Amino acid sequence: MKNNSIPPYKKKDKYVSFEARFTAQHRHQLSIKEECGVFGISDNKDAAALTALGLHALQHRGQEGCGIVTYDNVNFHLERRLGLVGDNFTKSQTLEKLSGSMAIGHNRYSTSGRDTMRNVQPFYADLHGGGVSIAHNGNLTNAIMLRESLVKDGAIFHTTSDTETIVQLIARSKKNMIVEKIIDALWQIQGGYALTMLSNDMLIGIRDPFGIRPLILGKLDHSYILASETCALDIIGAEYVRDIENGEIVIIEKGELKSIKPFPIRAKRPDVFEYIYFARPDSLLEGQCAYEYRKNLGEQLAKECGVRPDVVVPVPDSGVPAALGYSQAAGIHFELGLIRNHYVGRTFIQPSQNIRSLGVKLKLNANKSSIKDKVVVLIDDSLVRGTTCHKIIKTLYHAGAKEVHVRIASPEIKFPDFYGVDTPTKKELLAANKSNEEICEYIGAKSLKFLSLDGLYKAMGHEKRSAESPQFTDHHFTGDYPVKPLDHLNDDKITQLSLLSLASNQ
Predict the structure, then answer these.
(1) Is residue 257 domain-shared with residue 324, that is, in the same domain?
(2) What is the dihedral of CA 153, 159, 160, 166, to 10 degrees?
(3) C-beta separation of 104 from 40 below 8 A
(4) How far apart are CA 49 and CA 55, in angstroms?
(5) How far is Cα 231 from Cα 269, in angstroms, rounded to an integer?
(6) What is the CATH number of the domain that holds 387?
(7) I need a surface site. Which of 12, 276, 279, 506 has the fewest CB within 10 A?
(8) Cα(424)–Cα(431) distance, rounded to whole angstroms?
(9) Is 276 helix (H, G, I), strand (E, B) or coil?
């Protein structure tokens, strides 16, 4: 039988420490990146049910797991499940377990592909001063370094999520009050993050100093709400109040809201991918619908990269707004040349390449009547690996398209993400390693063009990108990381944090 245990490395005939083994052998395969959805509500007798509805609206942000924690003024109640919100939190017997007027919820999306129960959030811990539950959207860029230090100091980790690092730091703080402990922990972490937390009678919302990850504030009668997107407010009939500011902590206690800003003031830099892809089209971003931003991207794309096809065809669903904008600006007929099966998840946020490849076959079918014998311009929001685009183009040609020209409503993605979006390592990014001509040949298109970086900023309502103080976190295109990715000094794809077998019941 194969022995999967890891022997210690020998160095100059001496055994090195666990920490050294951990770093040397596993740093190349560790991952703690997540792009998720969070929701929180205070002072509402239907807190659990409303949280479930909010998570349902945020389902596009993560499909691997979901969970809800409630507080009834005495006890916390926790239910976590693998899979979709609609499959797990629609039954009355489940919601009845979640008593209390305060709640937070979480949809999980793991870029590591490890959909184990132990990583499903929210997390809960009994700490000195009371219980704390936390739900996290984003990714810490120094979590591995912190984790190694904490493990060396005797900390015991039960998950492979960077969120547990935050819990450990809060628990180890010498401060007296819970909020002080949280602030103490926040001073030690780096990255792009949005947090919702429950602690005794408090609902807490936190956004990273650059505002990379989104978090908004809403209100339903006397109840305050925290959520990743405004679509979660719409589903329960709540009103949008404002965005949580970058570096802001909001504390809701006994119906009152308090705001504190413990960090040095920085210029806000939200992740541009929220505008391009991640946010639901009907969600508001800086007061404007994501749908309108994406139409603007398509209009700008038509101005820069026009071609005279017979029809404009989007890659559904994320490419539809940009394709509409392109069609209107160019005066070219719009057609749904590809029909999507909506009962299959988004390929971009699936955890492994073999699933992505299978997903393309399951998700899309060509509408032959719209594209046969026609010159097609295919519009998509982004191009990452190129494997999906290649298969789509092949599908269109098999359906009878005369020519397929590809136009991408964002610049070339040349750098990996470390703040929570699933992009591969630089060596796997198509645009980082091939010229546009080589990419065009690889995907099998007649021609290929990307939106320029300046065009992206124009579509977002800015004259141009500010070199001194960029308006967005746009490292995907520029390599300009507002927070240094300390855990990723080499171009390695990290996939595992624990030595516990993935086949174990987790």
Answers:
(1) no
(2) -60
(3) yes
(4) 10
(5) 22
(6) 3.40.50.2020
(7) 12
(8) 12
(9) helix
Percentage of residues in the chain with pLDDT exceeding 70?
83
Active-site residue, from 36, 66, 305, 389: 36
**3-state secondary structure at position 449:** strand
Statement to judge: residues 77 and 152 lie in one domain: yes
Per-residue pLDDT reduced to its tens digit, 134-144: 999 999 999 98
| pTM score of the predicted model | 0.86
Burial zone of 505 (CB within 10 Å; 0-12 exposed, 13-18 middle, 19+ buried): exposed
Tell whether 75 is covered by a domain.
yes
Long-range pairs, 280-284, Cβ under 8 A, ≥24: 280/57, 280/58, 280/60, 280/229, 280/231, 281/321, 282/230, 282/231, 282/234, 283/229, 283/230, 283/231, 284/216, 284/230, 284/240
Give residue 392's Cα distance to chain centre: 24
Domain with 301, as residue range(s), is 291-472
How many domains is the chain built from? 2
258 and 306 in a common domain: no
Residue 364's Cβ-count burial label (10 Å; 0-12, 13-18, 19+) is buried
Q: Which run of H or of E encompasses 362?
A: helix 353-363
Angle (CA) 270 291 273, round 5° = 30
Q: Which residues pair with 10 in a beta bridge?
A: 15
Helix (H) or strand (E) run with residue 321 in it: helix 320-330
Residue 275 lies in a domain: no
- Please report, for the domain that includes residue 229, its CATH number: 3.60.20.10
Does a structural domain hold residue 168?
A: yes
- Asked if residue 164 and residue 298 are part of one domain, the reply reads no
Residue 276 domain-assigned (yes or no): no
What is the reported pLDDT for 213? 95
Cα separation, 291 vs 280, in Å, equals 8
- 36 is annotated as an active-site residue: yes
Confidence at residue 306, expressed as pLDDT on a 0 to 100 scale: 73
The structure tokens listed for 262 are 């413990």
Q: What is the mean pLDDT of the chain?
A: 87
CA 40 vs CA 6, 141, 195, 198, 369: distances in Å: 42, 25, 10, 9, 47
Helix (H, G, I), strand (E, B) or coil at 67: strand
Give the residue among 57, 148, 159, 41 at the shortest CA–CA distance from 110. Answer: 159
